[in-house]
Amino acid sequence: MSQTKHSTATTAVYGSDEMVRPAPTMTIPDEMTTPEIAYRMVKDETYVQTQPRLNLATFVTTYMDEYATKLMNEAIAMNFIDQTEYPRVAVMAARCINIIANLWHTPEKGDSKSGATAVGSSEACMLAGVSHWLRWRKRRAKEGKDNTRPNIVISTGMQVVWEKFAQLWQVELRQVPLTREKRTLCAKDAVAMCDENTICVVAIAGVTWTGLNDDVEALDKELEAFNKSKGYDIPIHVDAASGGFILPFVSPDVRWDFRVKGVASISTSGHKFGLVYPGLGWVVWRDKSMLPEEMSFSVNYLGAEVTQVGLNFSRPAAQILGQYYNFIRLGKEGYTKVQSNSMAIARYCHERIGAMKCFENYSKDVVNPLFVWSLSEEWQKTAKWTLYDLQASLQQSGWMVPAYSLPKSIEDIVVMRIVVRQGMSRDMADMLIGDIERSVAELDALKYPTPSREAYEKSAKQLGKVYTH
Ligand SMILES: *Cc1c(COP(=O)(O)O)cnc(C)c1O
Fold this sequence. Notes:
This protein is α/β, with parallel strands linked by helices. The protein has 2 domains: 70-327, 3-Layer(aba) Sandwich (Aspartate Aminotransferase, domain 2), CATH 3.40.640.10; 340-462, Aspartate Aminotransferase, domain 1 (Alpha-Beta Complex), CATH 3.90.1150. Helices cover 38% and strands 14% of the residues. It contains 13 helices and 13 strands. The chain has helices at 35-45, 66-74, 87-103, 121-142, 161-169, 187-192, 216-230, 247-250, 318-354, 377-382, 387-395, 426-444, 451-462; strands spanning 115-118, 151-155, 172-176, 198-204, 236-239, 263-269, 281-285, 297-301, 304-308, 359-361, 370-375, 403-405, 414-419. It starts with 34 loop residues before the first helix and ends in a 7-residue tail after the last helix. The relative contact order is 0.13. Pyridoxal-5'-phosphate (PLP) is lined by residues 59, 120-122, 125, 159, 161, 204, 206, 208, 239, 241-242, 269, 281.
């Protein structure tokens, strides 16, 4: 290789030494290079990835209009915490919290609802979890009772953040199994796991694994009776990462939010169906009494008194501008139209996929713009392929459609999932269905089982189900 020379403004990007050297993986390069070369090296590294819009695995926004994008790009250097310099960002965040709290029918009066901005639902769930843990600790201490063994109750359909919460704060995680019959949280089973050490029960609006909603009203009914009989006050948190921005617009009559008395807090992802680029989350408490004082930190930062509830200090402000922009730009009308379109596309795909002999939808209802399906019984018995093979085949046409097994106790069910987000048109859905049909025809024509099918048959045999073809 030629001797290293400094690249100059006239160096052709692909005529530079950098382009024939391995990319830095362990140590920082000794010398500078031009911005064009650095840009190309980083950009080119991303080319092998799926096109974000064809990624039907993610819930996170991959399309915003040009003005939103411009607004956010212009705010790229803004730090949310820097309130002396950017005081209006905090004002807009508080407005967003008010708007979201009202969308969720908060009973709290006044023009400053109790809530917080987060980097995503994960941080929002953490904050809600911590608030219930602190409330429970205080209450137990006041009663002179042991407060060292907290637990939290949630279904096995939970997102991994709850495992993190339990692990990091050393709270026992009590998981209500989902089964073939109980496809969402069973209220009775959940309450049966509660005791004096339960800090809260979590219901999920938009279960990540299946797209279904836990029945918050049913849970509230069971829990209220239990609380009354025992003298407890176990609250409900609703993890509405997806549902928080779907239900208010497409199913306004479903009671899952603060209209349900026992709901003490709700979290959502602004960057999922809030329609903002990552990362943004929100958490709202029923009222101030649910948000322990110890969680608000006041600091004097660069001359401004900043009161903040959150795990991070510095964080990007652009997402907050994006969220506030969306509220103004779309309004209730626009959110309803966008989400209804996503629902319509999801239902259309659900119907087309359900009509294929090789597939079976997991649920006949589509209540959020996502759904899962599995192989039909006949194909499960005789096919020479699995959904993992279909995933790999679709990837060749650029689609990312994930296959995975459902959580504990129904882990033998392998499903495939499609999340329909803003940016997926009927035309794209038709292309996808066409690609699925083509892939299935190819897989059905195989003479020998794929390695993934062989592995499946081996494990099925061990489980005592003998599938052969
Ligand atoms: C996505 C999701 C989360 C985590 O949200 P992030 O915004 O990715 O941090 C938590 N709970 C549920 C139900 C989710 O779907």
